[in-house]
Each structure stands twice: as C-alpha cells, then as structure tokens.
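Why does this matter for the project? Reviewers at the last site visit asked to see concrete outputs rather than summary tables. In response, this paragraph embeds two records directly. Each consists of the residue sequence and, immediately after it, the corresponding structure tokens. Nothing has been edited or filtered.
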Amino acid sequence: MTKTILIIIGIVGAMIIALIIMGYNYHHLYMARILIHNKDVNVRLFALADLTELNDRESIPQIIKLLDDTDLEIRSSAARALGDLGAKESIPQITKLLEDKNSMVRRNATYALGKLGAKDAIPQITKLLEDTGWEVCMFAVRALGELGAKDAIPQLTKMLDDKDWEIRSSAARALSDLGAKESIPQIIKLLNDVEWYVRGLAAISLVELGAKDKVTKEIINDIKRIRYNGSDKDEKRLQAALKELGVPENKK
C-alpha cells in the first residue's frame, strides 16, 4: 500500500512539473511573438520587460533583432535588456548603437556594454565622454570604470570638475574602480562639493583608494545619507567603507 502511494505521489509530482514547464514555454513563446509581431510599442515594451524580469535567455535572439527596430524606445530598451540578460553575443550589434542619433539609445547601449564587459568597445565609449547628452556622458564614465579602462584615467580625472554633479560623482566612483591613486588629490577636493551626494561618493572612493584619513566625521554623515535602490553590490561597498571608517552599520 505504501509503495503504491509513493508511486502515485511520484506521478503527480512529475505531472505538476510538466505543467509548470509547459506553462513557461507557452509564456515564452507568447511574449516572444509579441516582441516581433505586435504593432503597439507599449505592448512590446511590456513583453520585453517581462522576459527580462524572468531572465528568459531563450528570447535573446528575438531581442537582438529589436536593436534594428525603427522605434527608438524599442532599440533603447532592447539594448538595456540584453545587458541585464548577460547576452555577450549581442555586443557587436549593441556597439553599433553607440552612434545612434538618439541619446537615450546611446545611453542604454553604453550601460549594456559596461554590464557585458565589452572591453573592445572602450575606444567608442571613451568618445562618448564628450557626448552632448549628459546622461550618455555619465553612463560612459560608469562603463569605463566597470571595464577597467585605465587609459581613460586622465579624462575621467578632468571630469571631477564637470558642471553636472552626477557626472562628478560618477567620475569619482569610476576612478576608484580603476584604482587610480594618482587622482586622490582631485577627489579630495570633492569633499567640499556643494552636493552632499558627491561628497559621500567621493569619500567612499577615497576609502577604497586607501585615503580614508581624509574623510571627516561630517562627511561620514553624507555617506550614511546615500541610498541604493536594490543594488546589493553598491550597498556592500557603502557598508564596507563605513566599516573601514569605524562605523559598524549604516542604519536606515
């Protein structure tokens, strides 16, 4: 009797698993079809976001096709999705988007290439440091840090004086990523920046570069004010810096 029950449980379990797999496959095929054939941009963007959220790597070939779409939002979102999905096979196509006429597309292409570790794209991304769109410039700064572009250190150091505070803070972060100790004197100047966020990011960078003695108690309060939305990696860096400064935990 017990053996029969176990057999029944096994069969039911197998059926449940099969139904789950069938449901997933149907969902994947349905959303993938929407990406290519639906004419409503908002519906396609929803399908793209859904497949990315599900980490649906089977949809990567269809998403790559969207990089040539006539709609800029589709091209832009497709590039970002491929970066989040870790689709290294899409690097050549995404690199072409760095020359797209739309700044949002260039921005998300830069983001994706940074995420994908596209070191071959460093020369093209470096050119975007002079892009007319400040967001493109900011994402280029971040990507160069992520890609280990040490040749860009002189240009990134100059960007510590940029008029845009988000670019200044991103430059400090990127220089820390690159281990650019030669930029410490310039980063120290940011501890007196008018923006508390810049001061906080500069302080974290100085700690990581081995210059924690330059960070005052007042600046530690700026570090504590920083919030990261769902980024475990950034949160760990923040907490590690606070710990190095003698603060055990950033209480929120």
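We now turn to the second protein, recorded in exactly the same manner.
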Amino acid sequence: MGGGLGEPGRRTAAAGAGLVAGQPPGHDHDGGPVDTSCAKKDTGPASRQIDQIVLLLGAADVAASKRFYVDRGLAVAKSLGRKYVEFATLSSPAKLALYGRRALARDAGVSPDGTGSHRLMIGSDAGPFTDPDGFAWEAASRRDVRSCV
C-alpha cells in the first residue's frame, strides 16, 4: 500500500479540507459528512506548483509502526490515536504518514493484501532497513537518484 495525498477525509495543512477517493464528495472515510468550509481556503489563481507530497503507507498496526519510526529518529507532527500518524519534516516538502492498512485500502478501492512493491529509496545515510509492515527502505546515493530522473 502506498501513495496518498494526505490524511484521508480530514483537514490537512497542505490540502485544507481533503476528500477521500471512492467516497461521494463531502463525505469522510466512514461515510459521514465532512465540513468542506475552511477559513484557510486558497482563493488565489490555480498554479502547477506542488507545495507538499505525502507518502502515505498502509500499516497493519499504526501504533507499532509509529514506535518503529520514532525509534529511528522521526518526530511526530500529528497523530490520531491508532488510526493515523504524520511525521514532521524540517526542510523537505515530502512527508511520511501512516494510515491503517484496511482503511487505506478501502479508501483507495483496492485489496488490503497489497500486491505492489514494498521497496523505497531515499537520499540518506541511514542505511537500509525494513519497517514492521515490510516496507524496505534503501539509501540511494546522489548518483543513483540522478540516474532515476
């Protein structure tokens, strides 16, 4: 599981009021209404600039995965109990967030079993590791990153 635009169906710093894929507009992931009015709505002209990217990973146990990433040095920016956690990033527009695997699969309209790759590359000197949900993180050198672009 992976790839998302923020915390499904909730207000996010990046998106204001978000909607969930596969749900009728104005409804959250539980089917209830969502208040889509927000004092921070962007009223400026549309642009193609991306302010933030959130890598949303489906976790079987959000609390256990949260502990794993906190133990690796990530700081929690936002947490909604055992359902969702977003990690703080100091200077990067890319964020990591965890959401319950079954809820994420339901929102995305896919099987919670997952069949895609669980391999991620990051520009870091942290060394390779695998999280509790089997996401294998590998460090990429600058040369590796340039060859992928």
